[in-house]
């Protein structure tokens, strides 16, 4: 029953929970046929939506905690209380992770040509400033990938096939089931 409940957790929540507090830079790999501004805008939208949704769910779960604590007087394990406690903590972590991602992706947005910077230019700039923690570049790195273009070109306009998703997951060491579950949830 616990595994069935955990399988209902959205993959976006798992992504946001996995973002550490110490994260200073985000590397974004995308098909080179797409516009980096569009990618950054979509990532900002996902992070903003995640922070709003998970904050609301956190407050909703926290309100339910006192109601489920009533079951503590029963001689049985208080599964509802611990489940709501776990979900509260999970939504809190997801809200903090999405806020961190939103801060990273929206930082330094005043510079008009940020999307033109390449991965190599940013890495050489950060290597020359090894002593300083704050580099002059943005906290994101865009990495256009020709390999992703080749994998995606074989699919139709309706979306990616499961074979293409499997190839992408193998290339980037992703869990195929989580990616398919995320695609199905959209």
What does this 3D model show about the protein?
One of its GO terms (cellular component) is mitochondrial inner membrane. Pfam families: Mit_KHE1. The chain crosses the membrane at residues 57-86. By secondary structure, the chain is mainly alpha-helical. Among the domains are: 24-107 and 139-146; 154-186, no CATH class. It has eight helices and two strands. The chain has a two-stranded parallel sheet with strand order 1-2. Helix 2 crosses helix 4 (79-106). The longest helix is centred in the first third of the chain and has 33 residues, at 36-68. It is globular. The model is unreliable at 109-134 (pLDDT under 50).
Please render the helix and strand layout as text:
Blueprint: H1 2-6, H2 11-17, E1 26-31, H3 36-68, H4 79-106, H5 119-128, E2 140-145, H6 146-153, H7 162-171, H8 176-185
Parallel strand pairs: 1-2
InterPro entries: Mit_KHE1 (IPR018786)
Region (Disordered): 113-140
Keywords: Membrane, Transmembrane, Transmembrane helix
Question: In whole angstroms, how far apart are the ends?
Answer: 25 Å
Give the low-confidence spans: 109-134
Number of beta strands:
2
Strand content: 5-15%
**What's the total helix number?**
8
Mean pLDDT: 78
Element order, helices and strands?
HHEHHHEHHH
For the biggest sheet, the summary is: 2 strands, parallel
How would you sum up the global shape?
A: globular
Helix content: 55-70%
Broad structural category: mainly alpha
Gyration radius (Cα, Å) is 20 Å
Output the strand order for the largest sheet: 1-2
């Amino acid at each position: 029953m616990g595994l069935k409940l955990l399988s209902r957790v959205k993959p976006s929540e798992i992504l946001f929970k996995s973002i550490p507090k110490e994260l200073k830079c985000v590397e974004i790999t995308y098909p080179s046929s797409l516009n980096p501004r569009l990618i950054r805008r979509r990532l900002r939208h996902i992070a903003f939506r995640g922070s709003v949704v998970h904050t609301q769910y956190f407050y909703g779960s926290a309100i339910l905690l006192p109601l489920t604590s009533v079951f503590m007087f029963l001689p049985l394990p208080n599964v509802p209380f611990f489940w709501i406690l776990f979900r509260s903590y999970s939504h809190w972590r997801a809200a903090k992770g999405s806020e961190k991602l939103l801060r990273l992706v929206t930082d330094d947005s005043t510079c008009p040509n940020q999307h033109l910077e390449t991965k190599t230019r940013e890495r050489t700039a950060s290597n020359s400033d090894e002593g300083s923690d704050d580099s002059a570049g943005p906290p994101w790195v865009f990495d256009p990938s020709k390999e992703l273009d080749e994998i995606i070109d074989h699919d139709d306009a309706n979306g990616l096939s499961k074979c293409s998703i499997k190839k992408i997951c193998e290339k980037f060491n992703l869990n195929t089931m989580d990616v398919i579950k995320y695609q199905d949830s959209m």
